[in-house]
Design brief:
The protein has 159 residues and is mostly helical. It is built from nine helices and no strands. It has two domains: 3-57; 62-157. It is 74% helix and 0% strand. The longest helix has 25 residues, at 115-139. The protein is globular, with a radius of gyration of 19 Å.
Length: 159
């Protein structure tokens, strides 16, 4: 995906919470029950937090950790919140996005960033690669459900 499209994608991601905040801002909250109004406030706070990440923290342009931590799939192994096959499918889907994620990081991050940000992101990325290449493969060595295993190994091998 060309850099222009990736940058445009970040703009689209910023526009979504802005649009949702505008729609919620137009609601007549006096008609809501106390419980629904509580949920409304939680939703609105989550949207404002997302907007803060875009507008004030500029996480997609100023913080390489946004990208370095995006491939963290250890929760899929550590927690049995779904059948293992389903979790392996989710891991594979995430790993399939690694090339696009790295291209987005290259396209979106500012040319000059604080050295500690870059050094930390490099350490985290190296740890992720180590985990994905060794620990994850070891954790799934006995997983033999086909075609999920083949898909996982293909996704993992592109890293």
């Amino acid at each position: 995906m060309p850099a222009f499209e990736l940058r445009h994608h970040v703009g689209e991601r910023r526009a979504r919470p802005q649009q949702r905040d505008q729609r919620l801002g137009g609601l007549n909250t006096e008609l809501l029950s106390p419980r629904v109004f509580y949920d409304f406030r939680i939703l609105r706070a989550a949207i404002h937090r997302e907007l803060f990440k875009f507008e004030d923290r500029q996480v997609y342009t100023q913080n390489p950790m946004t990208y370095a931590g995006a491939l963290n799939v250890n929760i899929y192994i550590k927690r049995a919140f779904a059948p293992l096959g389903q979790r392996v499918g989710s891991i594979s889907a995430i790993l399939d996005q690694a090339p696009t994620l790295m291209a987005a990081a290259k396209a979106n991050l500012a040319g000059e960033l604080p050295r500690p940000f870059v050094e930390t992101a490099i350490e985290v990325a190296q740890g992720a690669v180590d985990f994905l290449g060794k620990d994850l493969v070891e954790a799934l060595k006995d997983f033999n459900e086909q075609p999920l295993r083949t898909r996982f190994l293909a996704a993992q091998s592109q890293l």
